[in-house]
Amino acid sequence: MSIEVTNLNFSYGKRQVLHDITISIPDGTLVNVLGPNGVGKSTLFRCILGLSSHYGGSILVNGKDMKSLSIKQRAREISYIPQSHASVYDYEVLDVVLMSTGTDLGMMRTPGKRHVERAYEALDRIGVIHLAHRTYTQISGGEQQLVLIARALAQNARTIIMDEPTSSLDYGNTLRVLCCVRQLAKEGLSIVQSTHQPDQAFLYSDKTLVINEGRAFAYGSPKDVITKELVSAIYGVDVEVNSLYGDKVRVCVPVNEIEN
Amino acid sequence: MQNQQMVATSKSIPQCAQSSRSKKADLFIVGMSVLLIVAMSVSLMLGRYPIEPQQAVRMLMSIVLPIDQTWTEQQASLFFNVRLPRILLAVMVGCCLASAGAAFQGTFQNPLVSPDILGASQGAAFGAAAAILAGCGAFMVSLSAFCFAIVSVLLVLLISSRAKGNRVLVVVLAGVMISSLFSAGVSFTKLVADPADDLPAITYWLMGSLTGAKLDMALAMVAVPMIIGLVLLFALRWKINILTMGDDEASTMGINVRVIRIIIIAAATLVTASSVAVSGMIGWVGLVVPHLCRMIVGCDYRKLLPCSMLVGANFLLIVDNVARLTTTSEIPIGILTAFVGAPFFLYLITRRKQQR
């Protein structure tokens, strides 16, 4: 199992954010996490990544208890892809990727040749090696996101967590990034990503996890999970779920727009 | 510019080729090292009583080799007791302030931070002013300044560890508050100081100067913390890069953010406190030099930190030469660095806008 969460409870002060979450994610699985804003998706991710450690219950990543690992050991098991963000300082793309390769480096050491090679390999695997010597802040948002994916790959962890990777991207870049993520899952990585688009989950996930009010509301294959009732229950909007191409893919359509 | 971009996109870049930026940075670092050696040598000869080049070389060599004395005692005294220590101090202080500034700008993810962001300068100023008021000698004034600089930073860290909210923001805010507290303390010492005697001494100390440099215990004693701090900062230069990505990201990339940040703050504080203790308040070096270097070698601290060290050393040495050579009664160097630093900083930020 890539990630096993058992009876996870988490509170910010007196306010309980996560209630008794139990999920297990097999190796090589692409999981989409759906849920309205502020229901605890990010908190769940923070717990799994070890950024918040005062939780109840247990979290195993690749069979290892995250609480018993050091920060460096954790980074070898799981990597994190944040939303593409403006960095204060403009690094070269290669240096950005290089930052994650140091999980085997001592505190006072700087990365060497083999780390640089690993960074180049990761950029090549994502297909953005031509950006290696560009300035990170001067490439497009989509390219930045791909570079961050390359950075997570260069970290050599088998499990990756992505927090809304496509929320600030245009349509083309969104598809490019999702396609890339899909491919990586096929190559054996486990990827958990949060999204606000149920449609994306149909195409780009093996399993869909729905978080609502701090609980694991539903978890299973996207076709079983994402239904008219569920979307209405968690987002409070009425949609019709339609199938296309002989049910190879489904889409959610807002009903009231059609009936009027 | 357009041409460069065309090349970058049309040709695929060969793997592992060193980027042009990185080569340029290496070249710049070598150039600055050479400039520093030249500037130090020339500075040794310059002064109201010039010393000829071959005399200077012979005097320097006489430290290790038995050479016939072809110089007067007076020349030797000037050379070893006044000029040499002052040049060494200028180089060290410049190096320290610039690298501390660069390190703080990285750890606090804020390019507008200077080495005294955590209250080190104001703490030191209060320590020095209080010691002057108490009638202490130069050595005790420096010691008091050093101790108060450390105390003020410790206070800031203590307060911020108890406060809630964004770690970086809380630390910087606590720094501003403690700074203003100590500066009020300085104002008070000025108010009660004897206007004929202590007040000018305090005012002069606050303006910053390297005149007090002597080849004695005091210089040796600040050299130790300076070197420890500089070595630590240099060793952690790659980790500073990762810290600029933010705490969460750095942590998921295997960096113990807390520990590394504390070590960097401790090291940068050590070098800043030592510098301020012996030279008074010399502003702008720690803010301007890292910026200048960033424009030349980029943001990668593996290049930026050594570069800042060298440029800081060169900058302060040259400014100090101006301070001691241009007028008969010398200008406090703190005033000069502000005169040079502030307009230069404005030039840097406006130039940057045009490029984009």
What does this structure look like?
- The complex is a heterodimer of chains A (260) and B (356).
- By secondary structure, chain A is of the alpha/beta class.
- Chain A has ten helices and twelve strands.
- Chain A has a six-stranded mixed sheet, sandwiched between helices. A four-stranded antiparallel sheet of chain A has the order 2-1-4-5, covered by helices on one side. Chain A has a two-stranded antiparallel sheet with strand order 11-12.
- In chain A, a hairpin with a 2-residue loop joins strand 9 (207-212) and strand 10.
- Chain A is globular, with a radius of gyration of 19 Å.
- Chain B is 76% helix and 0% strand.
- Chain B is built from 15 helices and no strands.
- The longest helix of chain B has 35 residues, at 73-107.
- Classes of the chains: A alpha/beta (260), B mainly alpha (356).
Quick description:
Helices cover 34% and strands 27% of the residues of chain A.
